[in-house]
Amino acid sequence: MKRSDRYKPNYKHNDSNDSNQLHHNTYFKPVNKPQKKKKGKGIVIKLLIPILVIIGIIIGVMYALSLRADTDELENITEKESFVSASNMPDYTKGAFIAMEDERFYKHHGFDVKGTSRALFSTLSDKSVQGGSTITQQVVKNYYYDNEQSLTRKIKELFVAHRVEKAYNKNEILSFYMNNIYYGSDQYTIESAANHYFGVTTDKNNPNLPQISVLQSAILASKINAPSVYNINDMSDNFINRVKTDLEKMKQQGYISNSQYENAIQELGV
């Protein structure tokens, strides 16, 4: 062999041997190697836990504070000189307030998720004529938390409203509501407001005064939204439209007949 041949590279391949050799994919991930955990999910959980703990503490504190409200004190409303029980009022008078303020009043237990969601949607679409609070919540707010405007008040209000629903029946709660709201002109019960504005009574057992009418009931139920702005003797277009809306709701919810609705609309002059 020539000396130069010793250093020449051998380019000859043995095909038979190559075919029997194992070839490994260098990009293949071994089976036993653990997957890397996603860091984002862990961070979210770590942040969420303390937030939930704080929310739980706040709710617990608000519940404890709500226990200061003695629901038995609502009985004091019945001692007002002009108090009239809702059970002694015409159905359309009660219906005027329920239709405008809380149409699911007889179906919920103090808090109405469906009604609140609907009110929020209506507010966002600028078509709201009904608030998000139930009548029971408004009873609680007016009696216990009238001057307090905050989220914590709302939480306490919900707890107390639930207790009120357990302690009283719907007619009693409605009586508390209609006899402890502001109707304007220093009138805080529906009977005194009916006497003052129309010279009528809401008491079916009172023979000394004419009975409140469907339209008058709708006017008082609509006035409480802005008692110092809405003038019964000089009704603005907004006030008239609100009364008309209430009458329509009363008819839809079965508190008045179609003929009663037509008569009230005619009296309203629209």
Question: TL;DR of this structure?
Answer:
This protein is mostly helical and 270 residues long. The protein contains eleven helices and no strands.
Structure keywords:
270 residues; mainly alpha
Set down the secondary structure blueprint.
Blueprint: H1 15-19, H2 39-66, H3 91-101, H4 113-124, H5 135-144, H6 151-167, H7 170-178, H8 190-198, H9 214-223, H10 237-252, H11 258-268
What does it look like?
The chain has helices at 15-19, 39-66, 91-101, 113-124, 135-144, 151-167, 170-178, 190-198, 214-223, 237-252, 258-268. The radius of gyration is 36 Å and the shape is elongated. The protein is mainly α and 270 residues long. Helix 2 (39-66) crosses helix 6 and helix 10 (237-252) runs antiparallel to helix 11 (258-268). The chain contains 11 helices and no strands. Helices cover 51% and strands 0% of the residues. The model is unreliable at 119-124 and 126-130 (pLDDT under 50).
